[in-house]
Amino acid sequence: MPPSTVQDDFPSTPGKVGSTLHCRRNSIDSLPEDPVQPVKMDKGNYFGRVTSRWHSSALAKLLCITSILLALTVSVFLWMSLPRGSQGYGSLKVQVFQRNHEWERKVIHSGSPNRNDNALTVLVTGAAGFVGTHVSLALKKRGDGVVGLDNFNSYYEVSLKRARQELLNKHGVFVVEGDINDKFLIESLFDVVQFTHVMHLAAQAGVRYAMQNPQSYIHSNIAGLVNIFEVCKATNPQPAIVWASSSSVYGLNTKVPFSEADRTDQPASLYAATKKAGEEIAHTYNHIYGLSITGLRFFTVYGPWGRPDMAYFSFTRDILKGKPISIYSGAGGKDLARDFTYIDDIVKGCVASLDTAEKSTGSGGKKSGPAMLRVFNLGNTSPVTVPTLVDILEKYLKVKAKRETIKMPRNGDVPFTHANISSAELQLHYKPVTNLDTGLKKFVKWYLSYYGDSSNRKLWPGNNEQTL
Length: 468
Ligand SMILES: O=C(O)[C@H]1O[C@H](OP(=O)(O)OP(=O)(O)OC[C@H]2O[C@@H](n3ccc(=O)[nH]c3=O)[C@H](O)[C@@H]2O)[C@H](O)[C@@H](O)[C@H]1O
Description:
NAD(P)-bd_dom_sf; membrane; two-stranded antiparallel sheet; alpha/beta; racemase and epimerase activity; NAD; Rossmann fold; UDP-glucuronate 4-epimerase activity
């Protein structure tokens, strides 16, 4: 694998950068090759010839200066339009992918199953993410072949992603560094390993961050998803795909619990809108190309190795630091509630989705018959209010939180979520078994072993395996 080049502060939008550079080249290409154009002269008139020459050279200078000014203006404009480092994926260190023997060897080794009975060979995108790490380990532990893919962007602390990568590596899962938008890279992976399944978990997560960096949601959740589908549809044989949608697609619905058949046309955030769009895009690829696709609507997943941007995680950090936490309240001061779902339950739902996915029916871009298309809620079916979540954290952290209750900002949040899981129960035998109290106890144990009892004192690397 080791990539030949690492570029700092390079946006993870290859298409965007590519087209910008192309555009930059075009703007220069479109300038006259020789900006000094010949000027027509009156041959019979010397004075005229001299003036014409003078005019000619003055015009040439003028044209030259104008061209330079124009090129400078275009360059400044293009430079300003490039995504900046402050954006979520802006400060990503992009590894320039280089396929070589060593890289192929690692991919093949990681992708080789350790058992013979119907083992799966799975490409897990977002493998260094929260759910991706847990799913990769679960698959590897039961003997499936697993290759991870992650772009290690800086949406939240990269060191946590690297620690997850280290853990995966220890268990024989190789995480390829790259972006889901990199078509050549994804094609190369399929060239080297015949994946039977793709567990597509790479995405731009977070409901409220979508107002700060909308483009990153389009880049990962739409363009990236399409790129994965494009490569999968053209592969022969096509893999079956399971991917992460979200409970947020239910948006402003008031009918509870949320069922898969309910309307999903009132998203409250751009994040939700991109996940809903993903579900429609999945329908298209299933319909045209015969790809077997299962979308999983995750309900506020939490647990060890979780995401620092989520409330239970950031509250823990702030409570331990003695910092105040903001608890949002809804209309009329009503508490917000979530159907918080423990990671181990989600992993079981993911693995069951892979196991029950039928084969895709197309090959090399051609469909030969109808293929499976499913959507499942994966929730806990028992919503808990945010103040209750804080009560539980206080109990296990043994620290009183400094609570500040504020009105829910208008930034894409929804007042509550509640899953109806009867479809998943029936078809996946999905049965969540961890309540919020038990799950948060496990999370706090992991948090303290990873960070120590204050976020300033870091104990990693340590033996955190038992907490998985
Ligand atoms: O199910 C999903 O599809 C989504 O789940 C998650 O979103 P949410 O359910 O919004 O989780 P999370 O941010 O932990 O906020 C939890 C609660 O705390 C409240 N909240 C939050 C922050 C704060 O400072 N104060 C507060 O009260 C907040 O108002 C909310 O009521 C994933 O992040 C998202 O990527 C997606 O996967």
